[in-house]
Amino acid sequence: MAAPAQLDPTQQQRPEEEAGARMSFFEHLVDLRKRLINSLIAIGIGMVIGLLISKYFINYIVEPMQKALRDAHLSDKLYYTSPAGYISLVINLGLYLGIVMAMPFVLHQIWLFVAPGLYRHERRAVSGFIISSMFLFVCGIAFGYYILLPQMLHFLIGFAYDGPVSPLISINEYFNLILIVLIGLGIIFELPILILILSLFGIVTPKFLMKNFRYAMLIITIVAAIVTPTPDATTMLIFMAPMIALYFVGVIVSYVVVRRKRTQTLARGEAP
Predict the structure, then answer these.
(1) Is residue 151 assigned to a domain?
(2) Other beta carbons less than 10 A from residue 68's beta carbon
(3) 143 plus 223 within the same structural domain
């Protein structure tokens, strides 16, 4: 009797990889509705919790400004300039905190909706993309709060220390300022992810990035000059330093992507 034909390993794995993709259009709509409802419930619960604890987070948020005022030998009190100013701050902060607390659950719901339609290697890639994006965003916020923000506020408050005027800091305007700075830095820290995507589509390569580094430096300098809310060179240099480091991290990421694509091309026996 002839020996049974052996299945190719890739053919053995394919049903396992495609098992989750067999859903009808109606089933996808039902699953989407379920994920949206779960996400909205999580955001609602997060906002309620955020409103309950936002008053306690205000002390943590105003600490950099209070330290800058104390260093300038000024009163460390912040003020609100309208009757509803403080309540508005508590509500806005609570809503932001609620979204932040619900975000891991929302991302998990998005993952549960997308994952069944992906192959196994695509699932690993997407999960790594989500985790690395969140990590870099948090790193950007941490850098802004612990490093850039104290330096920036120290310059802004100390600039008029010997003058005839004294600062009267509005808590609402201060909150808007740090919100822009922290979220802006969180977005800027996504630079390696942007380079990763461009490298996957073959738009940039490590050689291209290194060859055009001087133009990248010019763009980084212009962005730092525009985004930095203070005109002093020290704060701008502090803002530029992580951007340059992230650019070189992106070069390494691009090198890994290009090398892996070349290896896969050679493994398929195609010309590179």
Answers:
(1) yes
(2) 23
(3) no
C-alpha 175 chain-centroid distance: 19
The answer to whether the CB of 43 falls within 8 A of the CB of 102 is yes
pLDDT at 3 over 70: no
* Number of domains, the chain: 2
Pair (31, 137) in one structural domain:
yes
**DSSP annotation string for 160-198:** TTTSS-----BHHHHHHHHHHHHHHHHHHTTHHHHHHHH
Give mean pLDDT, residues 15-37. Answer: 70
Q: What is the mean pLDDT of the chain?
A: 82
- Which H/E stretch holds residue 223? helix 213-227
Task: Tell me the whole-structure pTM to 2 decimals.
Answer: 0.77
25-71 and 85-114 helices, crossing angle to 10°: 140
Structure confidence at residue 38 (pLDDT): 92
Which residues fall within 8 angstroms of residue 127, CB to CB, at 6 or more apart? 111
Structure tokens given for 49:
């919790």
Alpha carbons 189 and 183: distance in angstroms, whole number? 10
* Average pLDDT estimate for 123-151: 86
* 41 and 118 share one domain: yes
Q: What tokens appear for 92 in the block?
A: 């806005």
Among 5-14, 22-31, 193-202, the range of highest mean pLDDT: 193-202
What's the domain range around 197? Answer: 190-272
